[in-house]
Design a protein that fits this description.
This protein has one helix and five strands; from the N terminus they run βββββα. By secondary structure, the protein is α+β, with helices and mostly antiparallel strands. The radius of gyration is 15 Å and the shape is flat.
Length: 82
Amino acid sequence: TITNHGVSGSLFATPIINQPNCAILGVGRVHKRPVVVETPQGDALAIRPMVYLTLTFDHRIIDGAQADAFMSKVKAVLEGWA
């Protein structure tokens, strides 16, 4: 399941799992922040849209390593979006 609590302006939250689901992904408000980016010339400061993602999951069903792998994949897909 996914929920967009950022629509109300919050950056992050801990959503509650709705049974019978085993996890819920929370998406916070997307806003621009200064970040360090790596370039061929070296590190540089840039303004990028950033968002906090939170994953609440049931440890009885999902192992923490699986949840972390899922979040890593989501991060990689979003960072590589063309």
